[in-house]
Amino acid sequence: MKNSIKVLFLASLLLTMSCSQNDQEAPVGADAPSMGQENVVDATSNPNIVQVAVGSKDHTTLVAAVKAADLVRALSNAGPFTVFAPTNDAFAKLPAGTVEGLLEPDKIEALQNILGYHTFVGVLKPEYMQDGQEFDMVFGGKVKITKKGEKTFVNGSEIVASIPTTNGIIHVIGDVLLPK
Predict the structure, then answer these.
(1) DSSP assignment letter at 133
(2) Where are the domains of the chain?
């Protein structure tokens, strides 16, 4: 019996020592790699909102704005979110210099506000949207849904495509939504 206890004690001691030798301190602060959900990349996981947008040739301006507004991490997290995603052509409709001005570092708050007006916390599927409904956005107030036949509009901009993601849904629209 005493030999069995000694063997168990030695085995647990060796196990403890071998585990502690593999422990390494993780970097902290600015040297620490970001380990958030925005960095999950593999061949089997479905993409999140940001990853879908990055993969779209029609949303390069939106992706640049999300990066400039420092919102990549927020829109990559669990959500769920609904993002009304203006296309590059939608941004091109704005007055000349507007987009470039908003991408300046000193305009980060204004850019975050505009992008927040395109974001709803929760999933708004088109089939559940009703004519006349209003939804409170992350910033800037409410958007209004209208229906015309089978078409769904947000603040008068048609939803031309809806793309489910792991952390919500993207509705592609042809206009930039501006808070009223």
Answers:
(1) -
(2) 46-126+159-173
Q: Report the alpha-carbon distance of residue 100 to residue 69 in Å, rounded.
A: 13
Enter the pTM of the model.
0.76
Could you tell me which residues are beta bridge partners of residue 120? 82
List Cβ neighbours of 138 (8 Å cut-off, separation of 6 or more): 116, 117, 119, 120, 121
Q: What residue type is 36 in one-letter code?
A: G
Per residue of the chain (180 residues), give pLDDT as tens. 444 444 333 434 333 344 444 444 444 444 434 444 445 555 556 899 999 999 999 999 999 999 999 999 999 998 899 999 999 999 999 999 999 999 999 999 999 999 999 999 999 999 999 999 999 999 979 999 999 999 999 999 999 999 999 999 999 999 999 877
The CATH number that domain 46-126+159-173 falls under is 2.30.180.10
Q: Provide the edge-to-edge strand list for the sheet that holds 142-148.
A: 119-121, 81-86, 168-173, 157-165, 151-154, 142-148, 134-136
Whole-angstrom distance, CA of residue 104 vs CA of residue 69: 9
Strands (E), the chain: 81-86, 119-121, 134-136, 142-148, 151-154, 157-165, 168-173
